[in-house]
Amino acid sequence: MENMKESRLFCSMTEEEIEKCLKCSGAMIKTYCSDEIVFHQFDAPERLFVLLEGSVTICQDTNFGKRNIMTQIQRKGDIFGEVYLFMEHKHYEVYGVVSEYARVLQIPKHFFYRSCSNNCRHHEKLIYNLISIMADKAYMLNRKLQLMSCGTLREKIARFLSESFAENNNINLSMTREEMADYLGVARPSLSRELMKMKEDGIIEIKGKSVKVLNEKALLEYL
């Protein structure tokens, strides 16, 4: 229950209200192992997913077999698969794969298509929270489009890093080098070469998954 309370989907809801929603909707919790598929590309969208533990990567395969990473679901309580529930598409255009381990709450889509016959307040809260989350994700998608519209690889890297600034310009990357390359839509060797060039130019310092911006002004010139 604690992991569910961390989810924005259940924001401002008591444990009792959450339990009522789960019971009324017929929700279930499923556990997945490494490389298991949560939902397949071309599956019919039937459920909203809430990550309780672990991580799930949302991917799309091209006709040539190349995997493109669309996003990573890592924070406890984050939802995924929600957009397809309200579209006319009859199937997913992406798929969700587990990195190592995951526990996922699955809520049937019919629960979001109608109001409770008793006009329950917790049902209204859940739907409002879902709309709020989807609005924020639309904003983040716009940021991803800005990233992909960058003209050069260095511009893409600069925008990606600038959106991840932490204290003292330190950035802890959650992605592997290969995953970052997929996210930016470039080949891994090209990404590695450009990162090394930026290091040689004194813009960044790299240690494993840790990146420190040494020259913020130079980095921001590429935005």
Can you walk through the features of this model?
- With 223 residues, the protein is of the alpha+beta class.
- It has 2 domains: 2-147, Sandwich (Jelly Rolls); 151-220, Orthogonal Bundle (Arc Repressor Mutant, subunit A).
- It is 35% helix and 26% strand.
- The chain has 7 helices and 9 strands.
- The chain has helices at residues 2-5, 15-25, 121-148, 153-162, 177-184, 188-200, 216-220, and strands at residues 28-33, 37-39, 47-61, 67-73, 79-80, 95-108, 170-172, 204-207, 210-213.
- The strands form 2 sheets. Strands 1, 2, 3, 4, 5 and 6 form a 6-stranded antiparallel sheet that branches. Strands 7-9-8 form a 3-stranded antiparallel sheet.
- Strand 8 (204-207) and strand 9 (210-213) form a beta hairpin.
- Helix 5 (177-184) packs across helix 6 (188-200).
- The chain is elongated.
- The protein starts with a helix and ends with a helix.
- The relative contact order is 0.14.
- The mean pLDDT is 89.
- Residues 151-217 form the HTH crp-type domain.
- It holds the Pfam family HTH_Crp_2.
- This is cAMP-binding domain of CRP or a regulatory subunit of cAMP-dependent protein kinases.
- One of its GO terms (molecular function) is DNA binding.
- It comes from Anaeromicropila populeti.
